[in-house]
Design brief:
The complex is a heterodimer of chains A (556) and B (101).
Chain A lengths: L5 H22 L5 H10 L2 E3 L4 E5 L5 E2 L1 H14 L3 E4 L5 E3 L7 H10 L16 E2 L14 H11 L14 E4 L13 E7 L5 E7 L11 E8 L3 H15 L10 H8 L1 H18 L5 H10 L12 H10 L1 H10 E3 L5 E6 L10 E3 H14 L4 E3 L5 E7 L3 H10 L14 E2 L14 H10 L3 H7 L4 E4 L13 E8 L2 E8 L11 E2 L4 E2 H18 L7 H8 L2 H14 L1
Parallel strand pairs in A: 6-7, 7-8, 16-17, 17-18
Antiparallel strand pairs in A: 1-2, 2-5, 3-14, 4-5, 4-13, 8-9, 9-10, 11-12, 12-15, 14-15, 18-19, 19-20, 19-21
Chain B lengths: L7 E7 L5 E4 L5 E2 L11 H12 L5 E11 L5 E3 L2 H8 L14
Antiparallel strand pairs in B: 1-2, 1-4, 2-3, 4-5
Classes of the chains: A alpha+beta (556), B alpha+beta (101).
Bound molecules: iron/sulfur cluster (SF4).
Chain lengths: 556, 101
Amino acid sequence: MYEYNQFDRDFVENRNKQFRAQVERRLDGSLTEDEFKPLRLMNGLYLQLHAYMLRVAIPYGTLNSRKMRQLAYLADKWDKGYGHFTTRQNIQYNWPKLKDVPDMLDALGEVEMHAIQTSGNCIRNVTADHFAGAAADEIEDPRPTAELLRQWSTDHPEFQFLPRKFKIAITGAPNDRAVVKAHDIGIQMNRNEAGEPGYRIIVGGGLGRTPMIGKTVREFLPKEDLLPYLEAILQVYNLNGRRDNKYKARIKILVHETGVEEITSMIEEVFEKQKSLHQAPPAEMIEAIEAQFLPPEFDTRPIDEDKLSKIIAADPLLRSFVETNTDLHREDTHTIVTISLKPIGGTPGDATGDQMRVMANLAEAYGYDELRISHEQNVILPHVRRDDLPEIFKVLKDAGLATANVGLLSDIIACPGMDYCALATARSIPVAQELSNAFEDLKRQKDIGPLKIKISGCINACGHHHVGHIGILGLDKAGVESYQITLGGDGTETAAIGERTGPGFSYEEIVPAIGRIIDRYLELREDGSETFLEAYRRVGADPFKDALYSSEAENA
Amino acid sequence: MARAFTPKVVTANALLEGDVIYMKPNGEWSRLHSEAKLFEDETEANDALAHASEQASLLVGAYLADAVKRKDGKPEPVHFREVFRTKGPSNYPDHGKQAEL
Ligand code: SF4
């Protein structure tokens, strides 16, 4: 876990002090809202539909038990006893009072957390694979690179006023769990022919109004060239990015309009200059960062496999949990546990203060004090011994946290939508809840197999609907909520933007419509092993459109 | 051609909690839509909005929202967004205004 140095501490403390004074001046009327708004946004404070919302950064989704307990404390003391984990690996508090926010920020500062730079046209919180440092398929832990990028971009004078906000994601593994192709810059660790680790650099991905899959501008970049190369990308963007039109200002538009070859040569040209000017970060600094992310000393005593498999076999719920919510760890005595924040009928990504404390306790007792937040709005225990699974499962079950649905239909991503978000054009959370209720039987979900449903409440696409196998976008159609469906999206290394099926469905119609898609998939799949996405890629959109719209016509 | 004026209420968010508020007939603020004054005259509505916008130490983001008169004479929101604003989030019936309704 990265620990603040004196510079970081002073920086955050000063910002909190400044903001406290700004809030006081707003409350006594000496600052107008127009003056105050940019200041509060810089500190992660939004005004939403029913209340303020504080968005707290969780850099690369990494937490320890102390931080998680403090998040629980904030939820209980200043909010309504819960927090909402987002697709940006942040946590949002939906009910803070303006006068309390400075205290909340101080409390976060006590555990080296903050809400800075979670908005504005700057480089946002760098996101990373939530299995970083644990996954069996990993080349290297991507978090030291993510942390280097955080230090480099925080308050970097050149990058505070970019044409638009800028998002970077990084994965250390060939299996992309960080949706790197849907970010302004995606970084994927790889190796060259000599076997040395480096980076594939992908530029110009993004969702929102104009969804695009990022393009590879560099197949292999030696590790030491990363910062000058990214500076070259940002310079090209800063100089050429469109500032005249908010909707065309993201780098994806620049890449699209310029073409990948041209943009690549522009970047390479600046990079050549940058490289000679650039002072590489001192080796001690890199080493110091890497030291903060050293893997724990794994307890590798052999596992009594016989005993463990008997315990698992004897408990069908545990067996189901192990099948669905665990992943391969780089140490074979260990496993990765995903704690689903998607109870049947619940709000995706919400955890109560009590649940946060339970997860913190588990991390401390069984997980080398490590926790992660995934962009899929779940919480990860990245390192646990496999023979601790029965005990962990029991504790999770008692806390209502043992839903065995990771990767299945009810593991839905949903943005806050019109239940909270001031920008929303329709609700998304209740659609997720109703879908989850309609398919509550986990056996049935297992039979349907891996399926990613992602829901956004407006075109900004915080719910990543474009890369959902089934994407749902809520719109306002002449004063009525209307839901547009996309199919075949994919957020992994085989990334694809989903295809729109046709006219949208009303709030009442959307869940039955998804039901018809699922039924059609079950009819046409070759066998139980052909996933929804595979089937879609084989047969295309037509059979699903037919299921969606012809039965509607029949009923009409 | 200018669009015909439709009745409006003046609404905003309270500065302290961010809660949704509505202007009452006496110019004070209420948390309840049913207590809002329904402006049926355009000039009056605009004047009220201008007056609201001056109250920077009380509220944020005042605007005019469409509303209609119910049978009992009280105003009722038109757009679904405004309906949600009178209640609170649909995923927690005990959060927001609806908790007290
Ligand atoms: S997608 Fe739209 S509605 Fe959903 S959180 Fe983002 S801005 Fe809000």
